[in-house]
Amino acid sequence: MKTLEIFHSAKDQRFRDYPPTAPLTDFRIPTSAEYEVVDLDGDDIPEVVVTFSNQIYSLHYDKLVSVLILNPRGELLTKTPYPTKIEGLEVVSLTPYSAFQTTGVMYDAISNTSETITFANGFHVADRNGQRVLQFSWVIDNAGYVGPHLHQVQEMVMRDGRLEPLSEKPALYISEDWNEPWSGQTQVNIEAAKLFLKEHNLPPFSEMRKEAEKSFFGTPIRPDPAVQETLRNKAVQRP
User: Fold this and answer.
1) Burial per residue of 119-141, b for 16 or more beta-carbon CB atoms within 10 angstroms, e otherwise
2) pLDDT of 55 strictly over 90
3) Cβ atoms of 57 and 29 closer than 8 Å
4) Residue (of 149, 210, 158, 207) closest to 180 by Cα position
5) Which residue in 2, 17, 72, 227 is deepest, having the highest Cβ count within 10 Å?
6) Residues 141, 94: contact at Cβ < 8 Å?
7) Do residues 170 and 84 touch, judged by C-beta distance below 8 A?
8) Average per-residue pLDDT in the chain?
9) Residue 149 pLDDT more than 90?
10) Could you say which DSSP state residue 40 is in?
């Protein structure tokens, strides 16, 4: 086993749009690692499946997962796939909890090498009629933490050291479960997914602030240009 650690400070600018938890992005996000040895492709040679879980916020039970699949010699075969966009479903804005199309860099301190990786929100290896099916899921809305989310799920199988999708189109589920959103849930069609996004997506924080200012003051607050200029001059003079 090699000692691996993911350095993951801030996923992207979306984190900083949420002031109550923005300071947490300045610190390393806690990471845990698990592994299992399983024959994924049925050739009687087991693979090692290593799953890294990064907790996004210390206040919530949510996470980003990154999966590495290695052969018995420790050589990397494949890793978390990059999620595909679903035709007809426009994903405009994502919650900071989402791992959709999010990338990172893993540094191996022993071999002194780096590897580009992608993330998912959920991962599971299922045994379906003797075949190992790898299930990856991503949250694809920007709704708040509490409540259901729209998940995109891609099922894949291992062939010749590579991951191949079982279906051309990912499945869609609405669920409050972060790890296995398909568990006990019925797959939804694209029309239901569009309706969910329309009803549950939250406006950007900047828009919510403007609406709050209008409610309290009638018009949005605008900084006094003279005051702003004074503050800028003081900042320049500061050592």
Assistant:
1) bbbbbbeeeeeeebbbbbbbbbb
2) no
3) no
4) 149
5) 17
6) yes
7) yes
8) 79
9) yes
10) S
Answer yes or no: are the C-beta atoms of 202 and 143 closer than 8 Å: yes
Beta bridge partners, 208, equal none
- How far is Cα 217 from Cα 236, in angstroms, rounded to an integer? 33
Alpha-helix runs per DSSP H in the chain = 190-200, 205-217, 225-237
CA angle centred on 107, ends 103 and 110, rounded to 5°:
160
Q: Among 70, 73, 173, which Cα is nearest to 122's? A: 173
- At which residue do the structure tokens 């379906």 appear? 128
**What is the C-alpha to C-alpha distance for residues 54 and 66, in angstroms, rounded to an integer?**
8
Q: What are phi and psi of 81, to 5 degrees?
A: -70, 160
C-alpha pair distances (Å), 182 with each of 47, 187, 213:
25, 8, 41
Residue 67: pLDDT over 80: yes
Lowest-confidence segment of 57-61, 129-133, 138-142 by average pLDDT = 57-61
The total of other beta-carbon atoms located within 10 Å of residue 161's CB is: 14
